Amino acid sequence: MKQVKGLLRATDLIARDTIQYQIELSPALLTEIKPGQFVHVRIDQTAAHMLRRPISICDIDFEKNLLTLIFKVVGKGTAKLKEKQIETMIDLLIPCGNGYPLDELDAEHVLLIGGGIGVPPLYYLAKKLTEQGIKVTAVLGFQSKADVFYEDAFKALGDCFITTNDGSYGDTGFVTDVIEQRQLTGDYYFSCGPTLMLKAVKTKMQAVPGYISLEERMGCGIGACYACVIDKADDSGNVKICHDGPVFRANEVIL
Amino acid sequence: MKQVKGLLRATDLIARDTIQYQIELSPALLTEIKPGQFVHVRIDQTAAHMLRRPISICDIDFEKNLLTLIFKVVGKGTAKLKEKQIETMIDLLIPCGNGYPLDELDAEHVLLIGGGIGVPPLYYLAKKLTEQGIKVTAVLGFQSKADVFYEDAFKALGDCFITTNDGSYGDTGFVTDVIEQRQLTGDYYFSCGPTLMLKAVKTKMQAVPGYISLEERMGCGIGACYACVIDKADDSGNVKICHDGPVFRANEVIL
Amino acid sequence: MSRLSVRLPGLDLKNPIIPASGCFGFGKEYDQFYPIEKLGAIMIKAATEKKRLGNKTPRVAETYSGMLNAIGLQNPGVDTIIKNELPFLKDKQLPVIANVAGSTIEEYEAVAKALNGSGIQAIELNISCPNVKEGGVQFGTDPDVAYAVTKRVKAAADVPVYVKLSPNVTDITVIAQAVERAGADGITMINTLTGMQIDLNSRRPLLANGVGGLSGPAIKPVAIRMVYQVYQAVKIPIIGMGGITTIEDVIEFLLAGASAVAVGTANFQNPMICSELIDQLPFALEKYGFTSAEEVIGKGHLNE
Amino acid sequence: MSRLSVRLPGLDLKNPIIPASGCFGFGKEYDQFYPIEKLGAIMIKAATEKKRLGNKTPRVAETYSGMLNAIGLQNPGVDTIIKNELPFLKDKQLPVIANVAGSTIEEYEAVAKALNGSGIQAIELNISCPNVKEGGVQFGTDPDVAYAVTKRVKAAADVPVYVKLSPNVTDITVIAQAVERAGADGITMINTLTGMQIDLNSRRPLLANGVGGLSGPAIKPVAIRMVYQVYQAVKIPIIGMGGITTIEDVIEFLLAGASAVAVGTANFQNPMICSELIDQLPFALEKYGFTSAEEVIGKGHLNE
Ligand SMILES: Cc1cc2nc3c(=O)[nH]c(=O)nc-3n(C[C@H](O)[C@H](O)[C@H](O)COP(=O)(O)OP(=O)(O)OC[C@H]3O[C@@H](n4cnc5c(N)ncnc54)[C@H](O)[C@@H]3O)c2cc1C
Ligand SMILES: Cc1cc2nc3c(=O)[nH]c(=O)nc-3n(C[C@H](O)[C@H](O)[C@H](O)COP(=O)(O)OP(=O)(O)OC[C@H]3O[C@@H](n4cnc5c(N)ncnc54)[C@H](O)[C@@H]3O)c2cc1C
Ligand SMILES: Cc1cc2nc3c(=O)[nH]c(=O)nc-3n(C[C@H](O)[C@H](O)[C@H](O)COP(=O)(O)O)c2cc1C
Ligand SMILES: Cc1cc2nc3c(=O)[nH]c(=O)nc-3n(C[C@H](O)[C@H](O)[C@H](O)COP(=O)(O)O)c2cc1C
Ligand code: FES
Ligand code: FES
After folding, report:
1. CB A247 within 8 A of CB A211
2. How many Cα atoms occupy the beta-carbon half-sphere of D162 within 13 Å?
3. Helix, strand, coil content of chain C in percent (nearest 5)
4. Residue C154 reports pLDDT greater than 60
5. Residues of D with CB below 8 A from B48's CB?
6. Got the DSSP string for C165-186?
7. What are phi and psi of A248, to 5 degrees?
8. What percent of chain C has pLDDT over 70?
9. Helical H runs in D157-191?
10. What residues line ligand 1, using a CB cutoff of 6 Å?
11. Does some domain include residue D60?
């Protein structure tokens, strides 16, 4: 883990309230990163915001040395990040957390299940999986048509089904409805999204080994402050999402 | 008094840590302004800085509808103002305070005595006085050569003597030394600068009627909070610098 | 009743937004920016029996997301206020909450009596000013003293009495319950937290008074906590304040249990703030699923 | 002695910069960013007798220039800390100040005893944690209870005992004097101010625990005021904290009377902060006209 400043090379609105950052970083740093890890972003150089914001690694472009982040403007911090102009420096702790266990994986086909701002980390994962020759099918849920992003990007890597809560685009309903109706499965599933979605996914996919990526309000982001814990399923205590996660085996923690 | 947002058209470093702002405002507003008045500037749109900063009116360009402010970077607020880029909006309360009493003035020659960041308000005053056909002589004191600004501008309007504390430019010593050595005087004097300087000027110039412009830490800037008072010389209480000043008759207040 | 109106003892407010005492003078200065009759009410600057000149300067300092002040209750004295300041507010038909201060119980009583018949709607009994050497905060930190001064002022006044509490106490509910027992009609809270800034160059406290009162967004979490606790401890209504700058802050105070709110420091940053909050309130109510301001009050509590 | 070093009971510090308890774990995580042996000392996360899992989440929230936390003293228990965490710090030769917490006087005593012979340099007796239902802050708000627990822990401990004071009191000097009488070797202050944030969507307190502790720059003026007051009220040294983010803040605390400082929340914003402050300190001393850190201590007081 390092604290670095990267140059913001591009900032684009790619869907409703959804910003894509492309940040230039050193190649040495980028090669260390695993899908599922996140960065802890400083909002600005003043004392107005004392907490960083955790944002998932969405993609890495090794040719241009660019890190892609995608975030939704939901509160004061992300609103400030939205205002940043290109060519400013972005202060990151990177890489945070553990990432998805790609090496141990014995799979031919995996199912990626993402909801809203849970979609970004699945993209770099999908890329890495397909590089390893593993087939990916993505089921991505959004609120509404205006919120959809990265459909084409996922489609370039495998099957991709979009669903919206209000039916304004793709299928209608939750990701679990799509899985049900389309009878989707895989050797593993990887899921990231709101807790309610993860719960539904976990129940639905009981038969399949899966990994989920969790969110919690964070302080340090590096395992020092005990802000971001979640109870373990085996009753032996809790683990830190920032340090022991954010990726966990679906049956490892109590949602 | 109004709260307005003006467009920052130019921001220039004109001396050490000394920034000149040129802000575009409506002509109707600009014509209301009298020399000696000030603006109360909001630092930014966040809650980080709850207090505005008082800055004197330095000049007005009625052709381009520009207001000139000159400020020195001395703390957190002015440091943030320094970072502002052109084309951003600057939030001002304008005009604040009373200004110099030009109409009542029965004079042929006045002496302007300024120290450091007390120099800016004297410039617009000098312009207005010369417009009225009154001769002006300016004595301007700075710390050091690097701090000097607006020498040529004052010279274009009348005599102008620069002095620096360290003698690196112009005369050496305080403004009162220059007045002494050069035997300067006038029908009136107008002075603005650090309190210590004003005290020395007041003593030195006892024989001449004078006006001084004062500084104090401010809250509201409009007379509502009682932050910025100064005791009256006649023992009858205190007056508010933001509302009853910042310009006072030299013998009206106790420095 | 309209969507924005709230009703408290002596105060039928068309909306729950009030400028806080000491941050709005007697209204005239802010009337340059918008017609102040738009406000729910006005809390005027503290009045003492006689004219007071306050502390030496500097009296204010900026802090992170806040400010310190040690004005020291400067005011022209209650009689002059009644004569020179109240007529303007009466013309505006703006409900007036008169902030009453003093160094002794007798002075508090005298100010309250002087205000009888003056046409104000309520008294805000300031037992929490940290910026005067005697009086002020010491009345607000001891429940027995708070009880005594409330009781006396309540007996003397011809309008409802709201007691303004100090946050500089171990348990604010004890003080709140004491003033409720003494007959207070309501509570206003919080006054400033006592703080200090030291100037690195002079190596001395920056404010001439040494300590000052901390206000602004920095203290909002403390204010919300205290309003929440006092709401559960007493039955009389609360006017909440401390760091309000946005309409979300207003809703947060109402959820915590305030029946109306006061806005102080934010007026210095943005003189239009109270007006803007009043304009934004209907939209915020809708956004957060409420049909009226009254409905929000206390809804942040688990049992409501 | 070097220009930066300061000397307190049990603590010969090469510089006065210490990470605050609970904001720096047991040091390992921050050792990724810089060699933590550079620090004056480390205040480790609170230890209780047995392992504690702490409160439900969410446990933190951001506020204007600050944050709220309600971790609830999660820690693996004092024995595990001694076994798993102290060896790393011993290898680094970094002075350790062990934060001791508990729900009963007996628990405080047991933790202090367990630490005997563990190689730590001092105990920081945490009688001021607002985030646990029992214990914590209640020990820090009553001078008699503060006296009693300090006395017991002082008798049990084999290293100097610093007592960590709560700012949530009417008069902090009373508590400071009580713990001084009980034999405390020093005082650390301030812990967090109790605060709350209410979520507008859920209409409930945002932290699962309801209230939390407010820290960060927002509280600095309160911390400076209290250090200043306590410095005048006791003779034992003070380690000051509350909102430090810049080297000017460090100097300000020393001027107010602190002999060393701790940095908490700022580590989350900038993990390098303590290291940067240590690097900046010599230049700041020079800039403000001091030749050593020791020389600054208490110089903000009128009589010094
Ligand atoms: C490991 C991880 C990865 C994430 N990846 C992404 C991503 O790729 N894209 C994206 O849009 N969002 C992501 N999030 C959520 C994102 O961190 C929050 O939306 C963001 O912090 C909100 O900040 P704010 O200042 O706008 O909101 P505010 O509500 O103003 O924030 C206040 C505080 O609450 C915290 N907070 C608020 N919502 C969340 C949340 N959902 N999760 C964690 N902390 C929260 C903030 O960090 C901040 O400390 C991720 C969260 C985690 C834990
Ligand atoms: C009527 C008036 C006119 C002024 N005109 C000018 C001008 O034309 N050019 C210029 O450079 N400066 C001028 N000043 C001084 C200027 O206001 C301060 O230098 C500035 O506020 C410092 O802000 P800061 O945030 O950089 O300093 P900080 O020390 O960080 O400010 C903290 C607080 O102290 C106040 N403060 C600090 N120094 C002063 C001061 N000298 N006077 C008043 N308040 C202060 C700030 O306003 C702020 O509230 C004027 C002051 C007054 C009262
Ligand atoms: C400059 C200033 C002057 C104040 N004067 C008074 C006063 O006279 N009487 C009083 O009860 N409170 C006074 N207060 C306290 C405010 O009314 C209010 O309780 C406090 O500032 C918290 O609200 P805020 O954070 O919105 O400012 C004053 C506050 C400030 C900043
Ligand atoms: C997340 C967090 C956890 C904390 N845990 C402890 C603790 O275990 N023991 C303790 O005495 N203080 C604890 N504190 C208080 C800090 O040590 C410090 O006293 C306080 O935060 C003020 O300093 P700051 O403003 O620099 O953070 C904690 C603070 C935070 C923010
Ligand atoms: S955020 Fe500090 S331990 Fe996870
Ligand atoms: S700054 Fe408020 S009265 Fe002058």
Report:
1. yes
2. 28
3. 35, 20, 45
4. yes
5. 64-65
6. PPS-SS-HHHHHHHHHHTT-SE
7. -130, 155
8. 96
9. 172-181
10. A 38, 51, 53-56, 70-72, 74-78, 117, 120, 215-218, 246; D 61-62
11. no
Asked whether residue C64 is assigned to any structural domain, the reply reads no
Query: Residue C34 is encoded by which pair of tokens?
Result: 């918008």
Query: What residue of A is the nearest CA neighbor of D74?
Result: A226
Q: Are C63 and D220 within 8 A, CB to CB?
A: yes
According to DSSP H, which parts of chain D are helical? 78-80, 86-91, 105-115, 137-141, 143-156, 172-181, 220-233, 247-256, 266-269, 273-287, 293-296
pLDDT of C52 over the 90 cut: yes
pLDDT band at C5 (very low <50, low <70, confident <90, very high): very high
Which distant-in-sequence residues (6+ apart) come within 8 Å of B155 by Cβ?
A: none
3-class secondary structure per residue, chain B:
CEEEEEEEEEEEEEECCEEEEEEECCHHHHHCCCCCCEEEECCCCCCCCCCCEEEECCEEECCCCEEEEEEECCCHHHHHHHHCCCCCEEEEEEEECCCCCCCCCCCCEEEEEEEHHHCHHHHHHHHHHHHCCCEEEEEEEECCHHHCCCHHHHHCCCEEEEEECCCCCCEECCHHHHHHHHCCCCCEEEEECCHHHHHHHHHHCCCCCEEEECCCCCCCCCCCCCCCEEEECCCCCEEECCCCCCEEECCCECC
The answer to ipTM > 0.90 is yes
Q: Provide the domain count of chain D.
A: 1
- Using the structure block, give the residue that is written with the tokens 């880029």: B85
What range defines the domain where residue D51 resides?
Answer: 6-55+70-195+215-296
Is there a domain that residue D161 lies in? yes
Token pair in block for residue C95: 């409900």
Domains of chain A are 2-96 (2.40.30.10), 109-213 (3.40.50.80)
Mean pLDDT within A20-44: 96
Mean pLDDT by 10 residues, chain D (304 residues): 92 98 97 97 97 95 98 95 97 97 93 96 89 65 94 97 96 97 98 97 96 97 98 98 98 98 98 98 97 97 76
- Domain containing D19 — which CATH number? 3.20.20.70
| CA nearest to C215 within chain B | B50
Least Cα distance to D214 among C239, D146, A41, D206 occurs for D206
Q: Is D272 on the interface with A (CB under 8 A)?
A: yes
Tens digits of per-residue pLDDT, C214-231? 999 999 999 999 999 999
Q: What is the percentage of chain A residues whose pLDDT exceeds 70?
A: 100
Nearest to A226 among D32, D67, D71 (CB): D71
Rg (CA), chain A: 17
Contact of C102 with D254, CB cutoff 8 Å: no
- CB atoms A219 and D24 under 8 Å: no
Residue C143 within a domain: yes
Is position D23 annotated as part of the catalytic site?
Answer: no
- Enumerate the known binding-site residues of B for [2Fe-2S] cluster: 220, 225, 228, 242
Q: Are D237 and C213 in contact (CB under 8 A)?
A: no
What pTM value is reported for the model? 0.97
Burial D7-32 (b: 16+ CB within 10 A, else e): ebbbbebbbbbbbbbbbbbbbebbbe
Tokens of D216: 């960060």
A106 pLDDT band, cuts 50/70/90, is confident
Give B168-173's long-range contacts (Cβ < 8 A, gap of 24+). B168/B144, B169/B142, B169/B144, B169/B145
| Per-residue pLDDT reduced to its tens digit, A177-193 | 999 898 888 999 999 99
Residue C301 confidence class, pLDDT cut points 50, 70, 90: very high
Please answer whether residues C226 and C190 qualify as being in contact, where contact means their C-beta atoms are separated by less than 8 angstroms: yes
Name all chains with 3 or more CB-CB pairs below 8 Å to chain D: A, B, C
